[in-house]
Amino acid sequence: MPETLHSNRPDARPVLLFYCQHSLGIGHLTRSFALVRALVDRFHVVFLNGGPIPPGVPIPTGMEMIDLPPLGMDEAHNLISRGSAHSVEDARATRRRMIQQAIADHRPELLLVELFPFGRKKFAFEILPMIRSARRQTRPARVVCSVRDILVDARRDQQRHDDRARWLANRYFDAIVVHADPAFARIDESFRPSRPLVTRLDYTGYVVPRRDGPDDTMRGDTVLVSAGGGIVGYPLFAAALAVHAQLWPQWRVPMRIIAGPFLPEAEWQALCIEAGDRPGVELVRHVPDMVAEMRRARLSISQCGYNTALDVVVSGVPALLVPYAAKGENEQSRRAAALAELGAVRHFDGTLADTPTFAQAVADALDFRPRPAALALDGAPRTAAILRDLLQTENRARMPAHV
């Protein structure tokens, strides 16, 4: 459990209220926790957690965490309750009360909002009142958006969405921190409002979890298959099992499938039945360190969310990326294509149901040797420095001039 820091004790660090809502997977939560570990040295962090935390996900120490009644989104982008204790409407009302109480109790100097207004539109019912309350304090909070490298830009109403996000950013936010290396991905490549964004914008570099000490792990012979939190991973896992059945007699390459904590239980059971006692197949529900798993693998087959892509880059594993690309979702496809262009990965953009084609892509990738991707990976400490500088600049502007 996280160490609780009581807001009424003496503490020279400014209070940072961090709002994070992970909805489909755990990527947003993983990145936010990596940021918290860098922020707690400079800020008293109060973390508003809007979704369930799966078993095995390490919680940062040195912060106070407030668990809101968990909400999420289904694949049709409908708001759903992730907890049995609340209906969606009850959860909405309780969350708003808890967020307002957190503002009143902690009086944050800085409010860090993950993804909104570039996403999380269905959570505006609590985010906008939170921002307004933080700005109405005797000493108004600075409001900053924390956003990933690539945004979804394939919505049916994309122009309207971008224009609304631009208006909200200009109206309510003091700064935007983009967790990307601008030499690899720039936000204006996936965000194109019809009028300019004038809010301050900083690129931080990519955010990766802090890792201690050297790693001398030797590569093995296993094909590793993963899909982040796993909530939309079943089609990839089922296709990988079909490919293994086709390739095993010739290649004799073992396969280790890491399902992820959010793979629905019924789908996990279906995988277990399908794998049965098949030789060369291992099914694992969850692991604490995906980079360590990738460093031991001969080949990684995975989706291409933000954190998974960085795990591939950090581990240096030969990788075949199979991006999640449901209707209206193209963020992962763009990231996979950009990494493939660098020679850092192989990118499969075919149909998983076409087993022979997918099997050939896997067989070809077994001999792939990636080029290192020279990306800036210091996004967590850089974010902490940018936010502290933002507050210090504000404090200097408020100081009376010396006569």
Walkthrough of the structure:
It is a single chain. The protein is of the alpha/beta class. It folds into two domains: 15-208 and 377-398, 3-Layer(aba) Sandwich (Rossmann fold), CATH 3.40.50.2000; 223-365, Rossmann fold (3-Layer(aba) Sandwich), CATH 3.40.50.2000. The chain contains eleven helices and 15 strands. It has helices at residues 27-39, 88-106, 124-135, 158-172, 234-251, 265-275, 290-296, 306-315, 331-341, 355-365, 379-398; strands at residues 15-20, 44-49, 64-67, 71-73, 79-81, 110-114, 142-147, 175-178, 200-203, 223-226, 255-258, 281-284, 299-302, 319-321, 346-347. Strands 3-2-1-6-7-8-9 form a seven-stranded parallel beta sheet, sandwiched between helices. A six-stranded parallel beta sheet has the order 12-11-10-13-14-15, sandwiched between helices. Helix 2 runs parallel beside helix 3 (124-135) and helix 5 crosses helix 10. It is globular and about 70 Å long. The relative contact order is 0.12.
Question: Which key features would you list for this structure?
Answer:
seven-stranded parallel beta sheet, Rossmann fold, 403 residues, disordered N terminus, alpha/beta, single chain, 11 helices, six-stranded parallel beta sheet, disordered C terminus
Question: Beta-strand percentage?
Answer: 15-25%
In the CATH hierarchy, the architecture of the largest domain is 3-Layer(aba) Sandwich
* Domain module count: 2
Query: In total, how many beta strands?
Result: 15
CATH fold-level name of the largest domain = Rossmann fold
Give the helix tally.
11
Name the helix and strand elements from N-terminus to C-terminus, one letter apiece: EHEEEEHEHEHEEEHEHEHEHEHEHH
Q: What's the CATH first level of the largest domain?
A: Alpha Beta
Uncertain regions spanning at least 5 consecutive residues? 1-9, 399-403
Cα Rg: 22 Å
Instruction: Report the end-to-end length measured between terminal Cα atoms.
Output: 51 Å
The rough form would be described as globular
- Judged by helices, strands and strand pairing, the structural class is alpha/beta
CATH superfamily caption of the largest domain: Glycogen Phosphorylase B
